[in-house]
Write a structure and sequence with these properties.
The structure is a single chain. The protein has 211 residues and is α/β, with parallel strands linked by helices. It has one domain. The protein is 34% helix and 19% strand. It contains 7 helices and 7 strands; from the N terminus they run H-E-E-H-E-H-E-H-E-H-E-E-H-H. A 7-stranded mixed beta sheet has the order 1-7-6-2-5-3-4, with helices on both faces. Strand 6 and strand 7 form a beta hairpin. Helix 4 packs across helix 5. The protein is globular and about 40 Å long. The two termini are 24 Å apart. The N terminus is likely disordered. This is 1-acyl-sn-glycerol-3-phosphate acyltransferase.
Length: 211
C-alpha cells in the first residue's frame, strides 16, 4: 500500500469500510491528532469485515492516540468488552466508543460468540490488541487469530511508532490455519515499523524485533 505525504490524513474512508461520524467530526479529530505532532501512514483497505490489530501496547497513551486516529479516519471499530461494563453509569460512553458486550465465561465460548456476531453483520471491523496487556506480555495472545480464521476474515495490521509519532496501516494478512507459522509472518511485518512508548513494558515476542 502506498503512503501519503507526512501529516496528510485520510478524511473519507473507503466505501466498504464501516464508517462513523461526519466530515466535520473527522476533520476535528484528525486535526487534534495532527496538532500533537502525530501523523498517519498507509491506506485503509476497502474491505467490509476485518480484524484490526494494533501493537505495541505499552501505555495508556496508546488508547488516546489510537482513538483520535480512528475517529479522524471515520472508521467504526468494534471492541468487545465484558457485559458487566454495561451495568455502570458509563454504559452510554462504552456504546458510543464502539464497545459491544459479550459474556466472558470461557475463552472458547467468547471466541465463538464473537465469530457468530461478526458473521451476522454486513460490515464490521473488530479492534484487538494482541498482547492483551500493556505490561510486558510474555506472549502474543492467539484470540485475534482464531477470531479472524474462524470468521474467515483478513487481519489488518496497524503499528504504533512513538519514535516518529506515526500510526501505520501496513498490510492485510490472510490466515492459513497454521497459527505458529502465520504469527511468525505477522511479526516479521512489524519488524522495523514500530516503537513503544515504554520499552520496558514491550512484550517479549516484540523485544526480539525492536532495535
Amino acid at each position: 500500500m502506498s503512503k501519503p505525504q507526512p501529516n496528510q490524513f485520510p478524511i473519507v474512508p473507503p466505501d466498504q469500510v464501516p464508517q462513523r461520524g461526519t466530515a466535520l467530526s473527522r476533520k476535528c479529530f484528525s486535526q487534534l491528532y495532527l496538532k500533537q505532532g502525530w501523523r498517519f501512514e498507509g491506506e485503509l483497505p476497502n474491505i467490509p469485515k476485518a480484524v484490526a490489530i494494533m501493537t505495541p501496547h505499552t501505555s495508556n497513551y496508546d488508547a488516546w492516540f489510537g482513538f483520535l486516529a480512528i475517529l479522524g479516519l471515520g472508521v467504526q471499530l468494534t471492541v468487545f468488552g465484558k457485559a458487566s461494563l454495561f451495568n455502570t453509569p458509563l454504559k452510554h460512553v462504552f456504546k458510543w466508543i464502539g464497545v459491544m458486550p459479550v459474556q466472558r465465561d470461557s475463552a472458547q465460548g467468547l471466541t465463538q460468540e464473537i465469530i457468530k456476531t461478526i458473521k451476522a453483520a454486513d460490515r464490521m471491523w473488530i479492534g484487538i490488541a494482541p498482547e492483551g496487556t500493556r505490561k510486558q506480555a510474555k506472549k502474543i495472545k492467539s484470540g485475534f487469530y482464531h477470531i479472524a480464521h474462524g470468521a474467515d476474515l483478513p487481519i489488518v495490521i496497524f503499528a504504533f511508532d512513538y519514535d516518529h509519532k506515526v500510526i501505520r496501516c501496513m498490510e492485510v494478512f490472510y490466515t492459513t490455519g497454521n497459527y505458529e507459522q502465520d504469527l511468525e509472518a505477522i511479526l516479521a511485518i512489524y519488524k522495523g515499523n514500530f516503537s513503544p512508548k515504554n520499552a520496558a513494558w514491550l512484550s517479549k515476542p516484540l523485544q526480539n524485533l525492536y532495535k
